[in-house]
């Protein structure tokens, strides 16, 4: 596992739980609005150091009683060759719940983790409507994401789909297409983006959506989905 860092406590990453957040190095997407751009290179950037796994598991031992769960995020955690073993070790060494954040681009790996019952809560980014995905990801990954979405909707998992919305990239018709392509999903979150440390420098100066615009997006998505919420 290439662990890039640890946030020792978070009350916002894992719904209804206090979690520690562990960040994985490396991502196969290039979202222009990514605010963790230092986590995109698969190789650790010069001057940065990875966090030793021993440090993480020592932390786990010390802080387990103060936490409900661990959020594994990225980068893209599914790129890590030893993710399953890492999650197994968390389960063996603690009673903590595990939330996994992913872009859904490795169907078989995700399927194996679900089958092994290692995910207590899954959050999957739906970046765009399928035809627009090439803005952020290689075309060959779209079929993987489609398969992941279908599997998740038909599973017993606790999960959410979510879209980070950016004024230059998303509009109401894009939200309608995204909502239609995840029809049948339990929960969908529309998240306002943060113009901070973005991969595309020009987006650091961008406006974000107003609450009234986000409400219109929610109403549009509710034409296809039962539970749509906004994260401002
Ligand atoms: S936003 Fe997430 S999926 Fe997109 S480049 Fe950043 S880490 Fe990767």
Automatic annotation (TrEMBL):
InterPro entries hit by this protein: Aldolase_TIM, NrdG2, Organic_radical-activating, rSAM, rSAM_sf
The protein's name in its UniProt record: Anaerobic ribonucleoside-triphosphate reductase activating protein
PANTHER family given in the database record: GLYCYL-RADICAL ENZYME ACTIVATING ENZYME YJJW-RELATED (PTHR30352:SF13), PYRUVATE FORMATE-LYASE-ACTIVATING ENZYME (PTHR30352)
GO terms assigned for molecular function: 4 iron, 4 sulfur cluster binding; catalytic activity; metal ion binding
Pfam families, per the entry: Radical_SAM
Gene3D superfamilies from the UniProt entry: Aldolase class I
Cofactor: [4Fe-4S] cluster
Domain spans labelled Radical SAM core: 13-232
Protein species of origin: Halanaerobium praevalens (strain ATCC 33744 / DSM 2228 / GSL)
CDD domains the record matches: Radical_SAM (cd01335)
Superkingdom of source: Bacteria
The keyword Iron-sulfur is annotated on this UniProt entry: yes
NCBIfam families on file: NrdG2 (TIGR02495)
Keywords: 4Fe-4S, Iron, Iron-sulfur, Metal-binding, S-adenosyl-L-methionine
